[in-house]
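Closing statement on the cytidine-5'-monophosphate sub-project.
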Amino acid sequence: MTLHKTFFRQSLSNEKKRVLLGITGGIAAYKVAELAHTLSQGVVTVQTVMTQAACQFITPLTFQSLTGNPVHTDLWESSASNFMAHINLSREVDVIMIAPASADFIAKLAHGIADDLLSTLCLARNCPLLIAPAMNRQMWENPATQRNLAILRNDGIRMIGPVSGIQACGEVGMGRMVEPAELAEAITVFWQNRCLLINKKIMITAGPTFEAIDPVRGLTNKSSGKMGYAIAQAAVEAGASVTLVSGPTGLAMPAVDKFVAVISANEMLAAVQHEIPSVDIFISVAAVSDYRVAAMNAQKIKRNNHNLTLELTLNPDILMTVATAPNPPFCVGFAAETENLLENAQAKRIKKKLPLMVANWAHNAIGSDENELILLDDTGEHVLPRAPKIEQARHLIEHISTFFKQ
Ligand code: C5P
């Protein structure tokens, strides 16, 4: 395949971008020379870091000649005056791409191992990381590799490929590195997507709510918060300013502009209303309890020898409150259904006056790392087939951004 040089040059802004190309030990390393060449031809400065194993497949001299920059291989290289090549390099670039990313290197990334220059600078990085895995199909399918990949996805590391086909060892299957032209394109798309929602303020609600019955018990649901947190991450990646209002989850706080922890639906409504006038996009992913107990018991309810009846009172519908107020932000709802998915989701979209409703089956959505989504808007249905939630989140953000195109 020929490289899309013209496309690549045109699609990046004139501002010079800096890519760190990390090369690990795999036969696909030879193809990365073409990628280094293409990137260097455009408005990109390329720094190359190679592992010892990569140097067995292709020489540093090749990359030095193609990029016009010295190639780094040694954590202890003395040319860096402060002996901190790993910090210097990771601070001097806008994005790191590892191609090919071997099974061994993926394992190191997943577990934070830093025993050479490339793995150390990846651990020390403050910029996004893209990886292009390449390995034998059996190594790819090994549960250890799959576990490591799941960790990387959750850490927000983007994967490009691999693809299926004939392998260097003669076997056929999944594990071939994506071709250099597509890797160059992936970097372009990555940069374009980083500007999708620039200057937009987004508020996202996530997780369950908890409605206290007494000081130790409550009404809640099985929502994990994973989808909402993934959308928050994707929105940050797209350049938005993000406020995440979260019910109680077991998840680590993501790197958003503002994080507000709430417990009950009423608290969530108050947190939302506090900021909503300045918000451009409101994405309501939280599984808000529709009811709360009419009167919380001040003391722990004691067991008696008879049944107990709790009186429940209706909670506010946060999304509907926001979406039906004057001058609402662009509102997105999530409908998790156990039956009649599309009919129910569409009815909720109309009732809550939403330009966009995301429909998903409750059994697919709740608690899992993957999901299938159907986006419902005025133009019809858009299916996002089953994929990790972070990938779904990025597609959803892309779809939302189309509503803001001039
Ligand atoms: O629970 P339901 O299926 O109606 O949820 C649809 C949408 O409404 C979701 O986006 C959810 O976050 C929102 N919702 C809400 N307040 C409620 C119930 C649901 O904001 N009390």
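The chain has two domains: 5-193, 201-402. With this model delivered, the sub-project is considered complete and its resources will be redirected to Aim 3.
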